[in-house]
Amino acid sequence: MLKLRSASEGDAESVARILVQSRLEYLPFAQSAHSPEGVRRWVGNSLIPSGGVVVAQLDGKDVGVLAISTADGIGWIDQLYMAPGHVNQGGGTQLLNHALDILPRPVHLWTFQQNHGAIRFYERHGFKAIRYTNGDGNEEKCPDILFEHS
Length: 150
What we know:
It is built from four helices and seven strands; from the N terminus they run βααβββαβαββ. The chain has helices at about 10-25, 35-45, 90-100, 115-125; strands at about 5, 55-60, 60-70, 75-80, 105-110, 130, 145-150. A seven-stranded mixed β-sheet has the order 1-2-3-4-5-7-6, sandwiched between helices. α1 (about 10-25) packs across α2 (about 35-45).
């Protein structure tokens, strides 16, 4: 079982590494609009300081990241990534359940339409697609889906 803990500023490098490596491995169709160094700066300067970031550790190694927020009474899962080699082992479910335990309902999240693994994962956990877009609203310009859990 993973150990979950709140991220601190010292976790910026590790969190950025998970985000970059996971995107490269699992989202090759959605090239990041930012360099790895740009992601690290954003994680250290914006994401972690905003709060709501949780790191998942296995045997002392950071293997997953969850970032949540609340806006206008809606809970948001902003980031949920497992490091390559740690997918389909229950860690994503543990992070998702943590988010669902503390966020207000409804809970929303976006995922790319081509991210079939994520779509199956979220639907299996009770999320329903409520909006499809052509990707004009995201940096990658990839068609995406807004999911909701009530």
